[in-house]
Amino acid sequence: MAFISLHKVSYTYMGRQKAAVREISLKLDQAEKIAVTGLNGSGKSTLAKLILGLLKPQSGNITLDGRPVGKYSLVEIGEKIGYVLQNPNQMLFNTSVYNEVAFGLKWKGKSKKEIDYLCKKYLDLFELWDLRAELPFNLSEGQKQLVALSAVLALQPRFLILDEPTKSIDTFRKGRLKDILQEIWRRGTGIMVISHDHDFIAKFDDRRIHMAGGEVVEDAG
Amino acid sequence: MQVDIRTKLLIVAIFSVLALTYQDPRALAVIFLLNILTLLAFRVSFNIFVSLKNFIFMYFVLMIIQSFFVRSGEPLIKLGGMYLLTTGGILYGLSIILRFLILAGSGLILVDHNAAELLLGLVKLRVPYEIVFMIQVGIRFIPVFIGELQNVFNTIQLRGVDLRKVYKRKVLRVYVSIFSPLLYSVWQKAEKLSILLELRGFRRFPTRSYYRDISMKKSDYVIICLALVITAALVYVCHKILTL
Ligand SMILES: Nc1ncnc2c1ncn2[C@@H]1O[C@H](COP(=O)(O)OP(=O)(O)OP(=O)(O)O)[C@@H](O)[C@H]1O
Ligand SMILES: [Mg+2]
């Protein structure tokens, strides 16, 4: 059974004439590696938000692990899917980089020692450990994005949805991110990367979903 | 019928003043009735109430709770020598609810209107352009801020905090942790905006031109006269009611 399954899902934003996502049907497996591409405004981010239950489709249905997405609380969805927004500014709300990564771990009831270990491990991935005491808002765009990513990775979700993860990241860290995601995937985490960056997704198109005008126009892999 | 924004502003002002002047629920009920009629006459859609229903419900609950704490008039429910609910409390709660409905209802008259015309109306009423501009920015940015706040709330829950279940004390901590960065980001945006404005020549010249124009028609003057007459009648009726 598919981990995520969409059946004829359509979504139109309030006050809009045109549907942002139109009659999309998809099945995604838990251990899959998927690249989603498409022009600006083709509905990629909307698709991600629908899967996460952040938007409710006007028609069609979406199931996650065999249950309708609407039946889960956001917390339960967060336990299954890690999600990094296109705009990292809207994901950072702690007073230090360290706390940003520690936030979810604390609420999971991990011990101080475990939290310390995981924070160091995940911040080290992108060489951010030295910035641990900084205010996340004062970092560069790329650094913010990596902090948001580390915070999600540290929770070790079963499936990852990354919306434009490489937008303002330098070539070196981009390569790093590619390797890390590859490694995470090998250990059993499914990954869906939304990106325009053809260089980056070259390694992720085991399956490539191409969107245009709110529809899936190509699904190959 | 196209009604000028200034006419609408006047009507909103009248309702607001009336709602804040009168305290007696009977007088407020009459004003509320008139308010509904006005909304119907302007063909305002009530959809917004549907999307605000949670907020309105919370407001009502608060008012009901508050009416338990006002002790005046006749006691209605007594519990072991303590007055729990009094007629004064009920009347107080009622008048607050009516006031809220009148203020929210008259605001609806404007919601339907094009924001650009509203701002132009204010300019023509000689409100300083800087203030009008701030209102404009406010109108544009409110949905953006709400969206951002929503994203932060979503992120928090996706990272494992069930806001409906955590203890009160901790909820407070979560809220504090959200609001400080949010304020910071708002402040940063304001700063960026002001720089952008300077760069694009805001207030380089003492006046600016407007693409749209608004004009008062005969019908507007009729409506204004009507509004004033009805207001006078209303004040008279309320005066009668209150001296009964
Ligand atoms: N909050 C919103 N309100 C109204 N319309 C929206 C909103 N968000 C997106 N849209 C519209 O929905 C359509 C799809 O947007 P979406 O963000 O899903 O595109 P995208 O494929 O992620 O684009 P990009 O590559 O630029 O990130 C666009 O036409 C966009 O204008
Ligand atoms: Mg997008």
Provide tags for this entry:
heterodimer, A: alpha/beta, Rossmann fold, six-stranded mixed beta sheet, four-stranded antiparallel beta sheet, 33% helix, 25% strand, B: 244 residues, two-stranded antiparallel sheet, 9 helices, binds adenosine-5'-triphosphate, binds magnesium ion
Q: What is the topological layout?
A:
The complex is a heterodimer of chains A (221) and B (244).
Chain A: E1 4-11, E2 21-28, E3 33-38, H1 44-51, E4 59-64, E5 67-68, H2 74-80, E6 81-84, H3 97-107, H4 112-125, H5 141-153, E7 159-163, H6 171-186, E8 190-194, H7 198-201, E9 207-212, E10 215-220
Chain B: H1 5-21, H2 25-41, H3 47-51, H4 53-67, E1 75-79, E2 82-86, H5 87-111, H6 115-124, H7 129-158, H8 168-199, H9 218-243
Antiparallel strand pairs in B: 1-2
The structure holds adenosine-5'-triphosphate and magnesium ion.
Residues 44-45, 86, 163 of chain A line the site of magnesium ion (MG).
Tell me what the structure shows.
- The complex is a heterodimer of chains A (221) and B (244).
- In chain A, a hairpin with a 2-residue loop joins strand 9 and strand 10.
- Chain A is 33% helix and 25% strand.
- Chain A has helices at residues 44-51, 74-80, 97-107, 112-125, 141-153, 171-186, 198-201, and strands at 4-11, 21-28, 33-38, 59-64, 67-68, 81-84, 159-163, 190-194, 207-212, 215-220.
- Chain A has one domain: P-loop containing nucleotide triphosphate hydrolases (Rossmann fold).
- Chain B is mainly alpha-helical and 244 residues long.
- Chain B has nine helices and two strands; from the N terminus they run ααααββααααα.
- Chain B has helices spanning 5-21, 25-41, 47-51, 53-67, 87-111, 115-124, 129-158, 168-199, 218-243, and strands at residues 75-79, 82-86.
- Chain B has a two-stranded antiparallel ribbon.
- Classes of the chains: A alpha/beta (221), B mainly alpha (244).
- Chain A binds chain B through residues 52, 54, 73-75, 77-79, 81-83, 85, 87, 89-95, 103-104, 107-108, 136-137, 151-152, 155, and chain B through 148, 151-152, 154-162, 164, 177-178, 180-182, 184-185, 188.
- The complex binds adenosine-5'-triphosphate and magnesium ion.
- Residues 44-45, 86, 163 of chain A line the site of magnesium ion.
